[in-house]
Amino acid sequence: MRSKSSLAFPLLFAALLSLQNVAAAGKVLILDYHSFLGTSSSLDWTPEDFGAQLDRMRALGYKLVPLEDAMSGAIEGNDNIAITIDDGNHSVWKAAESVLLPKAVPTELFIYPAVIGHESHFLTREQLVTLVKQGFVVGSHGYHHMPMSALAWRHDRKTVTMEVTKPADLLQYILGSRPTFFAYPYGVVGPEAHDLVHKEGYEWAFLANEKFVFVDPADPALDHWAVPRTIVYHWNKAALFHFLEKNAPPKS
Question: 230: domain CATH number?
């Protein structure tokens, strides 16, 4: 019979190895873009400006990583940036063709599917299917992009519930696979909707505001259904790059 000490050693080694892997997992800054039309909107960019931002991030030493890799712990270091794009504006198609695909930038598209294929300023279903085939990943962004705050819940819980329960089924119908990530419309969620998203089976859900936050997915204190993202506006672009320069990895 093996002694207790001989049995304990492999268990201790496995535990230490697990802790080492957690410690090695990296942090990620999750950026949130919206459209690429070149209008005066603070959320809108030209494809050229968008591409220049991505180039500048890489020149500073940052890695542009898939959001899925970041959240699963498949990244290392504190020099990771994940690109997400909300809503599904039709300009995403051009940005994909002229910027994201040529630059090999992994991208998560958060889509509210009620408009896909039904409104002219959004992607068509065929375009969305093609983007997924090209490597883009799609997550839920509500159904009609209605607020999911505590106030919205008190005012109309039926609509908030629909924002949570309907998008995955339609996205699965369109794309053939079910989304596992959810981004809250307007970047805000109340406790009731937060719990619904959790119960609906989403693995991660994301807030959004102007703050710059490196996320550590391995942090036990991190709420999996309230993960910070940074919205990139025209008015905070300079501050964003100042933050990136300050936190850039040292030059080798």
Answer: 3.20.20.370
Cα–Cα distance, 230 to 213 (Å, whole number): 7
Nearest to 32 by CA among 238, 239, 232: 232
Q: What is the pTM of this model?
A: 0.90
**Residue 105 belongs to domain spanning:** 29-246
| Cα–Cα distance, 33 to 180 (Å, whole number) | 20
3 located within any domain: no
Q: How far is CA 243 from CA 55, 63, 133, 161, 248, in A?
A: 16, 15, 34, 37, 8
211 is a domain residue: yes
- Is 208 inside any structural domain? yes
Question: How many of the other CB atoms lie within 10 Å of CB of 232?
Answer: 19
Structure tokens, 204: 């991660």
Tell me if 137 sits within 8 A of 67, measured CB to CB: yes
Q: How far apart are CA 132 and CA 106, in angstroms?
A: 11
Of 81, 85, 80, residue with least CA distance to 96: 85
> Quick check: is 105 in a domain?
yes
* Number of domain units in the chain: 1
From residue 14, give the alpha-carbon distance in Å to each of 7, 11, 73, 194, 195: 12, 5, 18, 34, 33
Q: Give pLDDT tens digits for 110-127.
A: 999 999 989 899 999 999
The per-residue pLDDT for 24 is 52
